[in-house]
Design a protein that fits this description.
- The protein is an alpha+beta fold.
- The protein folds into two domains: 56-293, DD-peptidase/beta-lactamase superfamily (Beta-lactamase), CATH 3.40.710.10; 297-394, Peptidoglycan synthesis regulatory factor (PBP3), Domain 2, CATH 2.60.410.
- The chain has helices at residues 2-49, 84-94, 125-134, 138-149, 152-165, 188-198, 202-208, 275-289, 385-394; strands spanning 56-61, 67-71, 100-102, 122-124, 212-216, 223-227, 239-247, 251-260, 263-270, 290-296, 302-308, 314-318, 323-328, 335-340, 344-345, 353-361, 364-373.
- The strands form five sheets. The protein has a six-stranded mixed sheet, with no helix packed on it. A five-stranded antiparallel sheet has the order 2-1-9-8-7, sandwiched between helices. The chain has a two-stranded antiparallel ribbon with strand order 3-4.
- A hairpin with a 2-residue loop joins strand 16 and strand 17 (364-373).
- Helix 2 crosses helix 4, helix 3 runs antiparallel to helix 4 and helix 4 crosses helix 5 (152-165).
- It is globular, with a radius of gyration of 30 Å.
- It starts with a helix and ends in a 5-residue tail after the last helix.
Length: 399
């Protein structure tokens, strides 16, 4: 009887332990689900309540160009000194930064913001770009334009060519500084996409994230002190640029960028009387709602394919770089589709692109990853099984 009682108590204890385990697991699942729902709801609510005082605005994730928030993003409006984003980019791409520029007389005395350049003074192209982007110097913009293209008009043509190359269909430039002109306009979306491209340039990114810089005074031992007009640079280490702008016609224009844990977001407002406040809210929303996900380490996307006519019967193809992407934190894991041949013909060189992996968010293609041959495969007769067996024992080639 005692034995029976002991066994029954043990059995009851096991059932109780099992029930407790199930309860704990269900509680964990419920908690995780609840947290996920709260997170998704919070992100959605943050985006839904985001608003600005601007005539036009947009917030994008920089690596994909995906819009997080927008308002009249395709409305054509004046852009004031945010024009200088394109001016700086062309200067950096066209010239060496240590190139010495002799300031042309046509660049002196331009209205608006100025560092009071003098005709005939010599400055490096880098100094001119710093003056352009920190002090928003219109005379520096003119000096750059004349140096690069020979005239203001010719440089505007270059700007429009680049805009067309970037696919900026609602942008047109007539000058390098942004002074008012009926045919000088952009949209919040175009300006954001231009900025996303420009921020990939290390020199550009370095300059627009700089708060203070000095450049020489002509013929004197002193220096000009340049202070960035973008006061958000002083509020957070996450703010990394980009450009302010203002004319009476355009109103306050502002382009900013912020980065956190691999995620970069870009905010643009055109004609916004409360731009500083609006940009803080926009950038915070962007950084809080996106994350950088690692989808695969180097070599994790690895496949083996047969090879015909080669000295080896197969080839290994894989990704040769880590695969990461910035996505909304509430987005599901991307769907993966692999494209590769059923077999390949020799010869194959190491590094040849033999396939591709596409990642989809729903039906939207968001990333393409090339698959690379890990090793080469030459032409020639493959060893039969006996030759491979002898080689594995004695080493060397079997003739």
């Amino acid at each position: 009887m005692n034995i029976y009682f002991y066994k029954n108590r043990h059995h009851t204890s096991n059932i109780a332990a099992f029930v407790r385990s199930v309860a704990i697991i269900l509680a964990l699942i419920f908690t995780a689900t609840a947290l996920s729902l709260i997170l998704c709801t919070t992100v959605a609510a943050t985006k839904a309540t985001l608003s600005t005082s601007a005539k036009a605005a947009i917030l994008i994730e920089a690596s994909t160009g995906k819009s997080i928030y927008e308002h009249n993003a395709d409305m054509r409006l004046p852009m004031a000194s945010t024009t200088k984003i394109m001016t700086a980019l062309i200067a950096i791409e066209s010239c060496k930064m240590d190139e010495i520029v002799t300031v042309a007389s046509g660049a002196v005395g331009i209205e608006g913001s100025s560092v009071y350049l003098q005709a005939g003074e010599n400055l490096s192209m880098e100094d001119l770009v710093y003056a352009l982007m920190l002090e928003s110097a219109n005379d520096a913009a003119a000096a750059i334009a004349i140096e690069v293209a020979g005239s203001i008009e010719a440089f505007a043509d270059l700007m429009n060519e680049r805009a067309a190359q970037f696919g900026l269909k609602n942008t047109h430039f007539t000058n390098p500084h942004g002074l008012d002109n009926e045919n000088h306009y952009t949209t919040a979306r175009d300006l954001a996409l231009l900025t996303a491209y420009a921020m990939q340039n290390e020199e550009f990114a370095k300059i627009v994230s700089t708060y203070k810089h000095t450049i020489p005074l002509p013929g004197k031992s002193g220096v000009r002190l340049l202070l960035n007009h973008n006061r958000l640079l002083r509020t957070s280490n996450e703010i990394i640029g980009v450009k302010t702008g203002f004319t009476k016609k355009s109103g306050r224009c502002l382009v900013t960028a912020a980065r956190r844990d691999g995620v970069t977001v870009i905010a643009v407002t055109l004609s916004d009387p409360n731009d500083w406040r609006d940009h803080i809210a926009m950038l915070t929303c962007g950084l809080d709602s996106y994350e950088c996900r690692k989808l695969a380490d180097v070599g994790e996307l690895s496949f083996v394919a047969p090879v015909v006519g080669g000295d080896h019967g197969f080839v290994v193809i894989e990704n040769d770089e880590p695969v990461t992407i910035c996505m909304p934190i509430d987005a599901p894991r991307p769907r993966r589709v692999v494209y590769m041949n059923r077999f390949y013909y020799a010869p194959i060189s190491a590094g040849d692109v033999l396939g591709i992996v596409e990642f989809y968010d729903g039906d939207d293609l968001i990333l393409e990853v090339p698959l690379i041959a890990k090793t080469g495969v030459g032409t020639g007769k493959q060893k039969n099984w006996f030759e491979r067996f002898i080689s594995s024992i004695f080493g060397g080639d079997v003739k």
